Amino acid sequence: MGLVAINTQIKTNNYLGETVEQLEKDFLMCGINFDIAKPVSDYKGLFISTYNLVNTLNEKTPKKLINLIYKIDLPEEKVRDEMQKTELSFTEMLSELIVKQEIYKVILRKCFS
Q1: pLDDT in tens, 90-104
Q2: Longest Cα pair distance anywhere in the chain, in angstroms?
Q3: Predicted TM-score (pTM) above 0.85
């Protein structure tokens, strides 16, 4: 399933609850509390919450952020490629990639379970 399918799921708010749960689980496994007000109404709110946390991690504890990137299995080349193409800040771009990677994991689990 590619980026187009993930973007479709974002537009329709599919798998939103499952994505929040996956983010909480993966952040917590890295010792990071992903504290977000629930219920989350849309992916835009989820991106904003993720951005705020990623920005704080980048400024205060970058090692935890690196551990998180490895934990969620976000390919380094994907991050590098996106950095070359985007006009977003590093933390905005990284937050978007993290949420999309988590959506991807949720969708794969649904497809193969």
Answers
A1: 999 999 999 999 999
A2: 38
A3: yes
